């Protein structure tokens, strides 16, 4: 990999993807996004991995799509490249993904963090969709996911002015799970990832799928989807293990089958 580092066994059952274009503030060029897509696909298939963390560095999670790569492009170039199909694939990852965010999470960087399932932010993190300042608008889900998290008025303000919000403000809106001192943001993300990794990976993935479904469909259909997944879990050994462990007053040992 040229622009990311991947550690499959960063902690027990936890993989880490680190964006690695520090000089460019981890600007998301096409190759980097392709590398994230490919490694997520591989990690999703690896039974040893149960939770995935995506992070950048202290200064920047990512300062957006690579403006220099896009500057000279026309509509048909953009259509042919179809860069957002990569994002669709990332969004299909079954295992939970935690974004560990410090510094700038702007434009595509904010969108990448929002495509993840949870966010741990350092107190220096800044979130924003500044595309409007360069004559365009968010294209990787910003107008949709930010609006769902922040509500119409605040999302509209950020998208139309390009202003940033702080980690604390993002926490207030429920965009991030928690804010911690900068030296702890990765550690805190690992702690959360490890906790989730002790659960049944099958139940975790079906629960993730069900929560995500609530953003796509109306309540009745969502409840139906949830119920099917709930019933499906009763054909997994992990369900027997989890419930027997409760009855026998011991800790469950989930094997993911
Ligand atoms: N694309 C390409 N290069 C970028 C970049 C980006 N999104 N963001 C930063 N860089 C580069 C800078 O060009 C600079 O490179 P050079 O040293 O070669 O000049 C280097 O990273 C460091 O950046 P700055 O010198 O600008 O650092 P700063 O601390 O003064 O400012 C910043 C930091 C406020 C984040 C500023 O870099 C900035 O405004 N970046 C662009 C943010 C942006 O507009 N993002 C949206 C991109 S479009 C998008 O994401 C579309 C989408 O929906 C997918």
TrEMBL record:
<dbReference type="Pfam" id="PF00378">
    <property type="entry name" value="ECH_1"/>
</dbReference>
<dbReference type="InterPro" id="IPR001753">
    <property type="entry name" value="Enoyl-CoA_hydra/iso"/>
</dbReference>
<dbReference type="InterPro" id="IPR029045">
    <property type="entry name" value="ClpP/crotonase-like_dom_sf"/>
</dbReference>
<protein>
    <recommendedName>
        <fullName>enoyl-CoA hydratase</fullName>
        <ecNumber>4.2.1.17</ecNumber>
    </recommendedName>
</protein>
<keyword id="KW-0456">Lyase</keyword>
<comment type="function">
    <text>Could possibly oxidize fatty acids using specific components.</text>
</comment>
<dbReference type="GO" id="GO:0006635">
    <property type="term" value="P:fatty acid beta-oxidation"/>
</dbReference>
<keyword id="KW-0443">Lipid metabolism</keyword>
<dbReference type="InterPro" id="IPR014748">
    <property type="entry name" value="Enoyl-CoA_hydra_C"/>
</dbReference>
<keyword id="KW-0276">Fatty acid metabolism</keyword>
<dbReference type="GO" id="GO:0004300">
    <property type="term" value="F:enoyl-CoA hydratase activity"/>
</dbReference>
<dbReference type="InterPro" id="IPR018376">
    <property type="entry name" value="Enoyl-CoA_hyd/isom_CS"/>
</dbReference>
<comment type="similarity">
    <text>Belongs to the enoyl-CoA hydratase/isomerase family.</text>
</comment>
